[in-house]
Every structure is written in structure tokens, then in C-alpha cells.
Write a structure and sequence with these properties.
mainly beta
Length: about 475
């Protein structure tokens, strides 16, 4: 049972009565909604739990966001405190506001999305709708950011942020824009770019027909040895295949480049929208936080967080985890990108017409962690393996922000989840960690997007619904 200890305009500290570890929710019980999501509740969904497709269940249950009510605040587990670090000073962002040319909010942020921690501890936030990268530094006595500066502006829906070379003295900040990858000169401690952006990848597949422009987020991360730049590119559609829809070529993939921007290969395929990338500090593996497809029912298809080995195939659009076939599609063309991901160009209309089909369902990789369908899993990060602010049991675990559902009758998501790891490998379970973005009567006021860990071990979360950045610290009380 939750007991409110105290709150002010800036903070709320929640204490949860000490109990034994809650049982793991499995099977159909694991499919909870916002009202059942509580810090510490553990879920495990497997491919055996997936129902048959039921397109008749498909709904448009898009939330209309309300201003954060007085007393409403993100809820963390016992011993953690949540403060408002920046923003929260503009009207809430509606899904319909997420257009290719957004109207500025008039507040600190227009659309705060991915954020990453610089080696010196500064936080870099991609304000995608404003076309800016914003730097947050320090903490005032009231818990707010001591400095807020614009590092760069005039960018095309920036999202991914990576510092290069790896280590304490990077020389560049790489930015994943909707249609390009650019880099700006950077030295540790810079609050403003010292030079104009250099475009190193000029031809990233861009906007499409989905709401908000069609999976325009582009994340960028480097391999631990610094030789590989991984670029995630989401699909431009729900389930269009690249054989008959050439605009899907090199989409729903992770692409590998050199740090100088030379294309190397398609690293992995069949990931409908790998919004967030991270490199596992224990194993060195690339991981993705993925949005799966819509309109197959309330409990299909699960979003997921997973390791992404070189050459892996996750099924989209023809199949999904477990080799399940999407009933709306035929098998891929045998001469197309499904069986041949390294094709240099998409099939022509003549090549795709009446092509020979090939069943590649057995090649579909099952993701490491299935999360509830339609939760919209966005940025992910790993907690440091060295001892820091959170309890040592968090070392090496992953976190992912769940933006919240629209294609489901009972809304789910609107939270940050914790993914337990053992020796760098997921257990297949996940915990509700930071909830409370939905009121007791089901009204949505916040939508988590980004999550990063500061140099002191505390957590920062962007919320583009209330246009805020939240700060989660461990007090042990």
C-alpha cells in the first residue's frame, strides 16, 4: 500500500510498506493497464502467452493530455525521491502536435525527447520539435537545473546524441536527425557549439505517412571500441514491405557506418522501430528498445527490449517473435531484402511483381525481453556496473521509457521500466519502476521518452507530455 509522506511544489517522497518481493506476473496476468502499474510490480511475457491475431480489437484510444494536476507527480519505489529538474512550464503536448513543423511551446522545452549524459556530467537534451540540443548543468537548492543553455539550433528533428571519441575527452557530438547524421565540434564543458554542424550521412531515409511523420527518430551510438557507428532507422509504415514499397528500403533496420560516415552494412533487420539504442557495458552488445506493429489486437504485438547481434532478423513486417506470421502479408520475395538484407537497392516493380516467395520465419530471433504491446518503448540505458547512488542490486540493469499506448482499449505504458540483468544478460522479466503519469481516474498528464544516468548515479527522465525533465535520486528513506 502506498503512503504519502510529504510533497511540495517541487518534490514528492513516496514510501511503500516493506513487503516480500511481489510475485512475478505471468501469462495473461502480465498484461496490466495503467491502474495496475505500480513500482516494483514484475512482469514476464513469453511467446507462449501471445494470443491469436484479432484485428477487430484494434482501436484508436489516443490520450488527450491534461495539464499536470496539483499533487500529481511521478511515483518511484520506496527510498527514491523525484524532483522536477527543468521545464513543466508550457501547455501539455498532444499527439496531434507532433508534426513535421511544430509550433514552439513558449516554455523551456517544446518536445524534450532523448537525453544523454556527457562525460563531464552535463545533460544534453534533444528538443526535437524546436530543432535544438539543450544543455542542462548543475542543481540549485530548489532541485532545478542551475544552467540551461542552447548548444545548437536549426537542426532537423534531432534525436540521437553520441559523444566521440569515447572516454573523458570527446572531440565531437554526433546528432541523429530525421534525414541526416551530423556532428558538431565539442570539448568537455562546452555549453555552445564552437562551429557549424558537419553532415557525415546525408541520405538517411526520412519522413513518411504515419502520424508525426513516420518514425522519424534516429538514434546513434558507438561500439565500445569506437570503430562502429550504429544508426537506427524506423519503418515508414505499419506493415509495408520493402519489396513492394521501395520507400521502406533501409528502414526498420540498424545500419552500420564508420565514425566518418561511410556506410558499411545493414547490421540487423526486421526491427519495426528501434527508437532507443544502447551498448551493454558488460557484454559490449548492441541493444534496442523497439516499437512493434499495430492493429492486430489489444495484446499483439509486444514491444520489446533486446540485444541485437550482427545479422539478426526480428521478423518485421512479415513475421513477429516466435516465427508467427502476420496474417496481412505473404512471405517475402526470395530475391528481396527479407532473405537478402545487403541488397544495394530495392526491387524494381517488375522484379517484385509475381516474385517467388520464400518462408524465412525460422530465422526470426525472439527478443530478450517482451514488454506489453503498444506501450511504445523509447529510449533505453544501462545502469553503471560500478557502485553508484542506487542500491548495488541495480548495477548493470537496463531501463527503458514507455511513452504510452494508443492502439489498445486499456491504456498501458506511461512509465519507466527496469530490466533485471544477470552477468550482462536479461532474465526476461521487467519491473514497473517510475509510474504516476496517469491520474487515478485515467487521465494522462505525462509521457516518458528519454532516460539517462548522471555521473552521480541518479536518473533523469524526459517527459514530452508535460514538457519536463524529472530527476530520480535514492535517499534510502
Amino acid at each position: 500500500m502506498l503512503k504519502l509522506i510529504s510533497f511540495s511544489a517541487f518534490t514528492i517522497l513516496l514510501a511503500v510498506s516493506l513487503q516480500a518481493q511481489q510475485p512475478v506476473l505471468t501469462g495473461q496476468a502480465a498484461y496490466t493497464d495503467w491502474a495496475q502499474q505500480k513500482p516494483g510490480v514484475r512482469h514476464k511475457i513469453t511467446i507462449a502467452d501471445l494470443p491469436a491475431p484479432n484485428p477487430a480489437e484494434a482501436v484508436n484510444n489516443t490520450a488527450h493530455l491534461i495539464p499536470r494536476p496539483e499533487g500529481a507527480w511521478p511515483i518511484a519505489p520506496a527510498g527514491f525521491k523525484v524532483t522536477l529538474y527543468a521545464g513543466g512550464d508550457a501547455k501539455p503536448m498532444q499527439r496531434a502536435d507532433n508534426t513535421q513543423n511544430m509550433k514552439l511551446s513558449g516554455g523551456t522545452f517544446t518536445e524534450p525527447r532523448l537525453l544523454r549524459t556527457a562525460p563531464n556530467g552535463d545533460l544534453f537534451v534533444a528538443d526535437s520539435g524546436a530543432g535544438k540540443i539543450i544543455v542542462l548543468r548543475g542543481v540549485n537548492a530548489d532541485g532545478k537545473a542551475a544552467q540551461i543553455e542552447t548548444f545548437a539550433s536549426g537542426l532537423d528533428h534531432p534525436f540521437g546524441i553520441a559523444f566521440y571519441p569515447l572516454g573523458p575527452n570527446p572531440q565531437w557530438i554526433y546528432i541523429g536527425n530525421a534525414t541526416t547524421v551530423q556532428r558538431l565540434p565539442y570539448h568537455s564543458g562546452d555549453l555552445h557549439a564552437s562551429g557549424p554542424p558537419q553532415t557525415i550521412v546525408p541520405d538517411v531515409p526520412g519522413y513518411a505517412q504515419l502520424t508525426g511523420g513516420g518514425h522519424w527518430t534516429r538514434d546513434v551510438v558507438f561500439s565500445l571500441d569506437g570503430t562502429k557507428l550504429f544508426l537506427s532507422v524506423g519503418s515508414g509504415s505499419n506493415v509495408d514491405d520493402a519489396d513492394t514499397h521501395p520507400r521502406e528500403f533501409h528502414r526498420a533496420n540498424v545500419l552500420e557506418y564508420t565514425p566518418e560516415g561511410k556506410f558499411v552494412k545493414v547490421w540487423a533487420t526486421g526491427l519495426r522501430n528501434c527508437v532507443g539504442e544502447a551498448v551493454n557495458p558488460t557484454t559490449g552488445e548492441l541493444w534496442c528498445s523497439v516499437n512493434e506493429r499495430d492493429n492486430l489486437g489489444n495484446h499483439l504485438v509486444p514491444d520489446y527490449v533486446t540485444s541485437v547481434p550482427e545479422g539478426s532478423f526480428f521478423g518485421w513486417p512479415w513475421y513477429y517473435m516466435g516465427g508467427h506470421r502476420d496474417p496481412r502479408l505473404k512471405d517475402p520475395c526470395a530475391n528481396g531484402t527479407g532473405p537478402n538484407p545487403q541488397l544495394a537497392a530495392p526491387l524494381t516493380e517488375a522484379q517484385a511483381k509475381d516474385c517467388k516467395r520464400e518462408d524465412i520465419s525460422k530465422k526470426v530471433r525472439t527478443p530478450d525481453v517482451l514488454v506489453q504491446p503498444h506501450m511504445a518503448s523509447l529510449e533505453m540505458t544501462f545502469y553503471p556496473t560500478k557502485k553508484t547512488e542506487f542500491p548495488t542490486s541495480f548495477a548493470g540493469d537496463a531501463f527503458a521509457s514507455e511513452h504510452g499506448s494508443w492502439n489498445r482499449a486499456n491504456r498501458a505504458g506511461y512509465e519507466v521500466i527496469r530490466i533485471p540483468m544477470k552477468n550482462g544478460h536479461a532474465t526476461g522479466e521487467y519491473d514497473d519502476f517510475l509510474t504516476g503519469f496517469v491520474t487515478a481516474d485515467g487521465l494522462v498528464w505525462g509521457r516518458p521518452v528519454g532516460v539517462t544516468i548522471g555521473n552521480d548515479g541518479s536518473m533523469y527522465v524526459t517527459d514530452d507530455g508535460s514538457r519536463s525533465v524529472w530527476h530520480v535520486t535514492y535517499t534510502g528513506k
